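Q: Please design a sequence for this.
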């Protein structure tokens, strides 16, 4: 794992956007794995700005998002579909058919998980997966204790995750209890992974990732077994590491 140090959230977002842009420009048919949340938002803002100013094209990219809440239709204001269209896809020249997120209201969610895996496989697999990390070490919505062997699956969200995400809702009770998420095995099949970590609230988790052992009770630790991982972390997130 290569660690790049950023001075601030803004700087982390700049470095991440430059990293992605370099890939997108040299590989216009790239298959991206994308994430939602506060961490990648600044990166997406910079991709949008670059698209406006420099015209970088996303017409031929394919994307797969990590996860979606169960029970939220794509047009729900708090769905990850909405987040992605408001913050990124709606502001770029993407080809809608190439954009994928799990369907949280599929009638058969188990079948939905299988289909999502097949779609990833049929696209040739994910070239570059962008990840954030929960303060409990989750990646995607794979909470502590999740087997490293699982593909896209349905998960029950940890209470700490629901509380962390409540800031995007009016009340904690509105935060769903379940989600569909790429599994750890799905994430690990990506050819390359870019993990972003920002803020003091993630410093313990980053310390554990850098210094700790690989174990299922700390999902992000699996990344140590991946051959091509870059971490871009800001100073506050790195405060516990040295
Ligand atoms: P955040 O979430 O970017 O909103 O902190 C990260 C995560 O939970 O994976």
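A: Design:
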């Amino acid at each position: 794992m290569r660690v790049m140090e950023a001075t601030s959230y803004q700087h982390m977002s700049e470095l991440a956007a430059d990293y992605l842009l370099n890939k997108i420009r040299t590989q216009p048919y790239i298959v991206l794995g994308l994430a939602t949340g506060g961490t990648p938002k600044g990166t997406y803002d910079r991709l949008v700005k670059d698209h406006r100013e420099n015209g970088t094209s996303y017409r031929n990219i394919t994307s797969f998002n990590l996860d979606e809440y169960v029970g939220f239709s794509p047009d729900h204001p708090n769905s990850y579909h909405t987040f992605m269209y408001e913050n990124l896809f709606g502001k770029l020249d993407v080809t809608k058919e190439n954009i994928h997120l799990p369907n949280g209201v599929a009638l058969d969610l188990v079948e939905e998980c299988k289909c999502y895996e097949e779609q990833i496989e049929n696209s040739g697999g994910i070239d570059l997966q962008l990840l954030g990390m929960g303060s409990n070490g989750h990646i995607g919505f794979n909470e502590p204790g999740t087997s490293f062997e699982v593909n896209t699956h349905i998960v029950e969200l940890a209470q700490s995750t629901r509380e962390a995400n409540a800031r995007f809702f009016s009340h904690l009770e509105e935060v769903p209890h379940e989600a569909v998420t790429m599994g750890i095995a799905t994430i690990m099949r990506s050819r390359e992974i870019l993990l972003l970590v920002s803020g003091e609230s993630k410093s313990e988790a980053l310390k554990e990732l850098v210094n700790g052992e690989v174990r299922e009770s700390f999902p992000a630790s699996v990344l140590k077994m991946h051959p091509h991982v870059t971490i871009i972390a800001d100073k506050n997130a790195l405060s516990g590491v040295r």
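Q: Thanks. Anything notable?
A: The helical segments are 9-26, 38-54, 80-87, 109-122, 159-165, 184-188, 203-211. Residues 82 and 127 are 24 Å apart (CA to CA).
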